[in-house]
Fold each of these.
Amino acid sequence: MNNNTTPYWRLSGFYFFYFASLGALVPYWSVYLKSLGFNYAEIGELFAILVVTKVIAPNIWGWIADHKGKRMMIVRLGSFLAAVAFIGIFFGSSYWWIALIMSVFSFFWNAVLPQFEATTMTHMKDEPHRYSSIRLWGSVGFIVAVAALGPVLEEYGSNLLPSFLFILVAGIWLMSLVVPESAAGHLPITHERLRNVLLRPEVAGLLIASFLMQASHGPYYTFYTIYMEDNGYSRTVVGQLWALGVLAEIGIFMFMHKLVPRFGLRNLLLSAFLLTALRWILTGSFVESLTIMIFAQVLHAASFGIFHACTIQLIHRFFKGKHQGKGQALYSSISFGAGGAVGSLYGGYIGEGMGPEYAYFVSAAICVVAFVISWKMIEPKI
């Protein structure tokens, strides 16, 4: 790791706190909302509000960062305003109040990660495959949060969740202060228009497939904890299953720098779609079997680990120069934003109307469509 600009642990520390907040939010926010009396459909809508800001916020802040050349300034400002906005959650629990607070909070919270991703990739210079060795500490943060909070919330109640979340969001801001602006590097001027980049088949195919991949994760991210608890699993066990999935993610991150040169980004990406489809089929069909649920969670190594590591590198390759921030923002908004919102909505409506297991079957079908699109539109040489 090149240490003459930004120490490894400063970058890793930011990822740790950011994904620790995600580890508190994703598995347990739906449980907190359920404790307030909301049903499946309402929880799906509120969760969709949380992620739909990713469609707008990253692109606004990405445009500003690329034109001002001050990515870390955007990260610090967004982190601070996210922490301030989240304070509002302590002052009300109605549907519309929570919708308002989470909209404002997530507008800033969702803005910071794409710019930090661009900063990290720029810092890697000619070693983009080393990205995973830094990003894996985000996965460690997720595991620490989800594993620690499970027993605590089970013992003392979900009403403690907002307090823990505020501490973690404040930690994101504090870590952003120790990463200097120089880590983002000096952005070269690119002469290729952004529109031309987006019209390239491999770029369009990757973004469409990313949308579908995250849409397939919507029922999992929003309702997995409730789904498992409704089928007899304790919150502690569910927390351990969440942690196992991210542990598998860490494991694959540690080997991606060897897998990419050997198998290529395209082949790894295609394998991720098929393994993710298998994961959702198992989750929807065999929830009563802890053994199969453990195996399904291990497949998170493919559904997020392989997929995300490959996509981040491809986005960095496709969007060059001053388009890097926009590229990461587009990936975040189209996949985690639009895709995540659609996934939360159909997960809630199908779960309420037909049963949550059917949402996972829809997710599996979506992954197959993503595989076909990627196979046809992303060139074999990649």
Amino acid sequence: MAFSAKTEYGLVALIELAAIHASGGVLQVAEIAARQNIPDRYLEQMLTSLRRGSILRSIRGPRGGYQLLRPPTEIPISEVVACLEGEPSRRETIGRQSPEFSVLSSLAARLESLRHDLLASTSLQDLLDQREERLKADSMYFI
């Protein structure tokens, strides 16, 4: 149940934006794309989806770019995933009425519920904090 590439790239971009949120900073698509080695056009599509999903705002002009619409503590990862991936699709169950398929269907539903609960209880700030811890640990290692 890994993230799609689209969602991974979107989350990475949001972590970049979360890091500058407190200062009111703005990042342009090209800047994020260069830092994270993400194709510009692909990233632009994701950021547009996140803007439409009321997670980001875009600012026009030469000093424009994107910034978070809300503080990172108020953005659950479940909201980002739903915005980028859509709601989970229901599988076709016609012809799959046996007890074995029923057991598997029940397991899949539980797994999806646990995944949703974990993503709903994790904020963008949590991911930013984890990134900062890793950066600090990496810098201490090289001293």
